[in-house]
Amino acid sequence: MNQRQRADHELGTVVPADGGMPTQREPAEVVAELDDLAVWFPTPTGVVRAVDGVSLRVRRGETLGLVGESGSGKSTTGLALLRLVEPTSGSVRVAGQDVTRWSRRRLRAFRRRVAMVFQDPQASLDPRLTIGASIAEPLIVHRLTDGGAARRRRVDELLGMVGLRSDLADRHPHELSGGQRQRVGIARALAGEPDLIVLDEPIASLDLSVQAQIMNLLRRLQRELRLTYLFIAHDLAAVEHMSDRMAVMYLGRIVESGTPAQIWRDPAHPYTAALLSAVPVADPQVERGRRRIILGGDVPSPVDPPGGCRFRTRCPQARPACAETDPVLTEVDPNHRAACLFAREAVRAMRW
Ligand SMILES: Nc1ncnc2c1ncn2[C@@H]1O[C@H](COP(=O)(O)OP(=O)(O)OP(=O)(O)O)[C@@H](O)[C@H]1O
Ligand SMILES: [Mg+2]
Fold this sequence. Notes:
The structure is a single chain. By secondary structure, the chain is of the alpha/beta class. The protein has 2 domains: about 5-250, P-loop containing nucleotide triphosphate hydrolases (Rossmann fold), CATH 3.40.50; about 265-350, no CATH class. Helix content is about 35%, strand content about 20%. The protein has 14 helices and 12 strands. The strands form 2 sheets. Strands 6-7-8-3-9-10-12-11 form an 8-stranded mixed β-sheet, sandwiched between helices. Strands 2-1-4-5 form a 4-stranded antiparallel β-sheet. Strand 1 and strand 2 (about 45-60) form a beta hairpin. Helix 5 (about 130-140) crosses helix 6 (about 145-160), helix 5 (about 130-140) runs parallel beside helix 7 and helix 6 crosses helix 7 (about 180-190). The longest helix is centred in the middle third of the chain and has 18 residues, at about 210-225.
């Protein structure tokens, strides 16, 4: 195990304290685990290092929030957990099985173990299928119900679970609102009783009022069914609200991880501090007194990431050592890690 792997191998040890969960002494079962995962895409202009050394663990019943700017590799990380992208190196374990090198044929049955809910429910539902047929599809593919009557009962049940009336089963996606369509996406994800649900920006395309409803639905379902989520979002406030732990990605790497409280109260990586400084605060007096940290330059290309620390080209606190050493995730507090040579020191020097 290299230093990076060791550093964040423990990412995933905080167990949420809500009802029915195992105590800290008996850590919950690890449902999904990435170990030093890299996913590189060869393109005509070079190899895109979309994910470049990510280790994480998700335990049963918890939500791990994944945040980062566009292009940081969040979706690719999620797709790797469904084995919908080919890992270049590292490993993917789900429900106790190492699926890193499984063939397409072998993956067919496995696909039921991890489900995904996408940002745009319009695009993820087949417009020609009725809602009932869309929800029945995973039941048929994985042979989960015996006969048409049992299938219809299960579709009814799934519609009820996501708060939709059963007569919607005969409608088509275009007849539904955005929020209703996302509920259908969630029902489809629940159909196979997966071990892990990857929620890739599940509320980003919805109206504000609907966003809250969908988040509440996801949280209620998690409590009732003891679901496990990887929650991907741009919106830091949504991640804080939803997650037991969170990880911040930059250019294919996790640069900070911890509980939302640890990260909001005391971010240790300058990139996280910059992201947080851009989140508006409700209290106008606090808001007036705050400083935004404006990052210079653009995100470098993942084809040719900077040597040393990948963030150094935009970091307001970059020092000569940052060009020499590629920092590993290192503990700054129990279960709170940052990949920065000058972790807290750099953030404090930013005086935000
Ligand atoms: N199939 C692919 N072929 C080539 N490059 C890809 C492919 N998929 C993703 N990428 C590139 O990999 C990088 C990471 O993409 P990814 O979609 O994982 O980011 P993301 O964090 O989900 O971004 P967003 O917030 O915009 O959804 C980007 O530079 C993207 O252009
Ligand atoms: Mg994405």
